[in-house]
UniProtKB/TrEMBL annotation:
Record has Transcription as a keyword: yes
Protein name listed in UniProt: Transcriptional regulator, AraC family protein
PANTHER family: ARAC-FAMILY TRANSCRIPTIONAL REGULATOR, REGULATORY PROTEIN POCR
Species per Swiss-Prot/TrEMBL record: Psychroflexus torquis (strain ATCC 700755 / CIP 106069 / ACAM 623)
Gene Ontology MF annotations: DNA-binding transcription factor activity; sequence-specific DNA binding
UniProtKB keywords: DNA-binding, Transcription, Transcription regulation
Family matches, as InterPro entries: ExsA-like_N (IPR054015), Homeodomain-like_sf (IPR009057), HTH_AraC (IPR018060)
Residue ranges of domain HTH araC/xylS-type in the record: 182-279
Keyword Protein transport found: no
Length: 279
């Protein structure tokens, strides 16, 4: 799966050195787990459809009643059409320089801020809906005062969200310029019980698959496929022993594409079939 460099792929009609800009994004087919290298922080104002994103060890799903602010970095995201067979969102990008300028102007950056999650979920309201409707890539490319207008729009939404969410949002904004990098083990171990493939976990670690495998074996003293399978099968055994779930309920979440493969691996590991535990 190729990596999409965003917002670079949208640079056809804008200046590449622009610190703030808007892009109207539309599509007519579902895209599942696309690999995205996001080089700028980005608001995703979803208007039609659904979106799920993965970053390192975390994930979140939103619909048109919510918006997302995402930090720059490597993401996996899934975009799904609405019943109207269309997906539409407005993307609002801003550079770290503009964010730093804003924080220096409006906040008191006197203490260290520790990053907790790479995204911020925004609950849309009437004000935010009106703000989204005021955004259009056409508005801010053909106007002689486009750059100045964009700075005002950027400050407007930032100030409104600071007013709406208070210190929670302020702390998140400061975390966006933090140089703290997620540790390799944190990414790996937070995805033990996900259904992500090795290639996808490697991507979230900012590594090629071959580099990821070498680094993993050095850290854990065994190949990643074997290690993850062992952890996931133990998790499956724990879930089945709870008595509320069947093998057919959990095999996808444990990282298997079909029930048969899961059953074979489970029996090889524990000497009994998963149905023996759930009966």
């Amino acid at each position: 799966m190729p990596i999409e460099n965003i917002p670079e792929i949208y640079f056809q009609n804008i200046k590449t050195d622009q610190d703030i800009f808007v892009y109207d994004f539309k599509m007519s087919s579902d895209v599942v787990k696309s690999k995205v290298n996001l080089s700028m922080n980005m608001f995703s104002f979803l208007q039609v459809g659904k979106k799920q994103v993965h970053f390192a060890g975390t994930s979140v799903a939103v619909n048109k009643a919510q918006s997302l602010l995402l930090k720059k970095g490597n993401w996996l995201w899934t975009e799904l059409l609405d019943t109207e067979a269309v997906y539409y969102c407005k993307l609002f990008f801003f550079s770290e320089k503009k964010l730093t300028d804003f924080l220096s102007k409006y906040t008191n950056n006197v203490k260290p801020y520790k990053e907790e999650v790479p995204y911020f979920v925004i609950e849309n309201d009437d004000y935010i809906a009106a703000f989204i409707n005021s955004l259009s890539s056409n508005t801010f490319t053909d106007h002689s005062y486009s750059d100045a207008l964009l700075v005002l729009k950027f400050e407007e939404i930032m100030l409104y969200l600071l007013n709406k969410y208070g210190s929670t949002f302020e702390d998140y904004l400061h975390s966006l310029i933090s140089k703290e990098i997620s540790l390799f083990k944190n990414v790996v171990e937070s995805n033990v019980n996900s259904n992500l493939k090795l290639e996808e976990i490697a991507f979230l670690c900012n590594m090629s698959l071959s580099t990821f495998k070498r680094h993993f074996t050095s850290e854990y003293k065994e190949p990643p496929g074997k290690w993850l399978q062992d952890k996931r099968l133990h998790k499956a055994k724990e879930l089945l022993e709870g008595g509320d779930l069947k093998a057919s309920d959990i095999y996808l979440d444990i990282g298997y594409n079909n029930l048969s493969n899961f059953s074979v691996a489970f029996k090889k590991k524990f000497g009994i079939s998963p149905t023996d535990l759930s009966n």
